[in-house]
Amino acid sequence: MESGAGLVDEAGGTMQEIKAAIGRVARIVGEIAAASKAQSEGIRQVSLAVTQMDEVTQHNAALVEESAATANSLADQARQLSELTAAFKVVNEAAPREPSF
């Protein structure tokens, strides 16, 4: 009988240890879940930042294209103006006259 009571006490102690171990495992699983959630949010933010950078890069590329087209147009206009003004001759004028008072 005493050995049976001892076994029951031992089983009770073991059950308490198992209960405590289950509590520790549950706490660790909770910490892992919280860390996973934080990492997921971090990844979401990085993804958003990369998407925004891509949009800005595409916008900048469009602006560069537009600037290049404007520069080419300006160069063409300067060439045309140079051709038009080449037909005119500049004559050296005499020195300016002194006002007569």
Secondary-structure map:
Elements: H1 2-85
Model description:
- The protein is 83% helix and 0% strand.
- By secondary structure, the chain is mainly alpha-helical.
- The chain starts with a helix and ends in a 16-residue tail after the last helix.
- The mean pLDDT is 92.
Q: What is the overall number of helices?
A: 1
Structural class: mainly alpha
State mean pLDDT (0 to 100 scale): 92
Strand segment tally: 0
Low-pLDDT segments, ≥5 res? none
In helices, the fraction of residues equals over 70%
Q: Strand percentage, roughly?
A: under 5%
Query: Major β-sheet, in short?
Result: none
Order of helices and strands: H
Shape: rod-shaped
**First-last Cα distance:** 146 Å
Radius of gyration: 43 Å
Condensed summary:
By secondary structure, this protein is mostly helical. The chain contains one helix and no strands. The N and C termini lie far apart (146 Å).
Structural features:
101 residues; mainly alpha; 1 helix; 83% helix; rod-shaped
